[in-house]
Amino acid sequence: MLGPGDDAAVVAAPDGRVVASTDLLVEGRHFRRDWSTANDVGHKAAARGMSDIAAMGAVPTALLVGFATPGTLPVQWVQDLVSGLREECGAIGAAVVGGDVTAADGITVAVTALGDLQQREPVTLGGARVGDVVAVCGRLGWAAAGFAVLGRGFRSPVHVVNAHRRPEPPYADGPGAAVLGATAMTDVSDGLVADLGHLADASGVRIEVRSAALDVPAKLREVGAALNVDPLTWVLTGGDDYALAATFPRGTDLPAQWRIVGAVIEGDGVRVDGRRWPQGGHEHFR
Amino acid sequence: MLGPGDDAAVVAAPDGRVVASTDLLVEGRHFRRDWSTANDVGHKAAARGMSDIAAMGAVPTALLVGFATPGTLPVQWVQDLVSGLREECGAIGAAVVGGDVTAADGITVAVTALGDLQQREPVTLGGARVGDVVAVCGRLGWAAAGFAVLGRGFRSPVHVVNAHRRPEPPYADGPGAAVLGATAMTDVSDGLVADLGHLADASGVRIEVRSAALDVPAKLREVGAALNVDPLTWVLTGGDDYALAATFPRGTDLPAQWRIVGAVIEGDGVRVDGRRWPQGGHEHFR
């Protein structure tokens, strides 16, 4: 692998295929400099890209970063961003292999993540079958709760605020799900209902979610009580935790980190407790 | 290969390695909507990415595109951009395989190009050796002349204006140079002197360019005369034509599209006719 500095990077693709995904993070939409440090933004940008790779059942291997910035941005901010990107990658054995920097009026971070399928077939959105169970892995609603707290001018509780600043995607459980025989998978970046909707559409099925099966942790209930918000809303519609949602054949022996929250039936769309959920998606900053 | 719409794309990498490069194009810096059509911008964005791949000696295979846009941008502009991207890719057998769209205050196009080395070693910046010849392939100075024309409020001559709007990188000559035994190579995106400077630095050598060996076409001389600019300046410092510059062992039998313009000697940096060139690089819009 060649490092940054050449015209392009050369990345190992031992499988003979490479998984690739591009995401943009725009200041004021995906992050705010008064809410997140540059290091946080780096972690989050890398997480956003690499969770897409994990959601295909692949192992993230490399990251390329395009960075548009006003000339007034302190150099330290850029250095901290790069540190955050490198730390998030390094923790799972991936590396930042290339990039581009250009001047612009606002900050935009473009992240392309690459990954290796390790000889397995990709787990796409389109493979769910009637009779499968629906399961989730990783945190849901935490980043949304943190976003709500920050939006009301608070800086605590720190657990939910940090969840917004620095997600912790369950990267290894993406390839793990592939090994377990997942039929379809996605990462939850737009919100559970919205992302399961994409999966249901691509698979030509309906997904029934049982809200009682979802974990609504005590911490989220406390924050919800304080802000007068039903915390289930965060769990169902919050993005940016980068949990994984997957379908498995009924009877699959799922490890503890996977929680069965619903089933695949005939029909279309997503139902929560038999009803359409009124809000589809995740709100970014205005 | 999976199309856009899943969490990530799966791209063939038959070589067991993949070449990858990310570039950003920012409105007002890399393009202007009153100077270029959306289709032009699509062609140029794809060219910018894929010329980096060719400059490694690889064949471009796939493009991922991140697109940040104000909500006020006409849908037709976006469709034309995508058409331009697809046309530029399709002409050389590559494909747009994925992307991301987000709201932003300005237009930014982030392009990640992937490519296949076809079992050859990558041609990097760092392999030039004392005694090698320096050769260029493709147009130099045309886009810069077009930029100068547009900057003075003219819309013609059409050849140079179109060169600015829609570069024509010699993609196939990148892998071709690798087969011919190129020791180092780069695409000319910052300007010939600047990009040869990167190559000289990476290789630990000096590059001597003989200006008399450079082709200054009649068309550029005409435009130079009209604008009172020495057209050699455009040839030496103009980027955005995405020519290729490479070093080859002396005596390599180079095909006609390669023009020998200098030599690799001991030392550092770039000299033109034995002197430092005063301006290193390519000016983007302010």
Give the SSE map.
2 copies of one chain form a homodimer.
Chain A: E1 9-12, E2 17-26, H1 38-54, E3 59-69, H2 75-90, E4 95-103, E5 108-116, E6 133-137, H3 142-151, H4 158-165, H5 173-180, E7 184-188, H6 192-203, E8 206-209, H7 218-227, H8 231-237, E9 243-248, E10 258-265, E11 269-272
Parallel strand pairs in A: 3-4, 8-11
Antiparallel strand pairs in A: 2-5, 3-5, 6-9, 6-10, 7-9, 8-10
CATH class of the largest domain in chain A: Alpha Beta
What low-confidence regions of chain A span 5 or more consecutive residues with pLDDT below 50?
Answer: 280-286
> Outline of chain A, from the CA principal axes?
globular
Count of strand segments of chain A: 11
Helix content class of chain A: 25-40%
Number of helices of chain A: 8
Taking all Cα atoms into account, the compactness measure Rg of chain A is 19 Å
The secondary-structure element order of chain A is EEHEHEEEHHHEHEHHEEE
Mean pLDDT of chain A: 94
CATH superfamily grouping of the largest domain in chain A: PurM-like C-terminal domain
Q: Give the structural class of chain A.
A: alpha+beta
CATH topology of the largest domain in chain A: Phosphoribosyl-aminoimidazole Synthetase, Chain A, domain 2
What's the quaternary structure here? homodimer
**Architecture of the largest domain in chain A, according to CATH?**
Alpha-Beta Complex
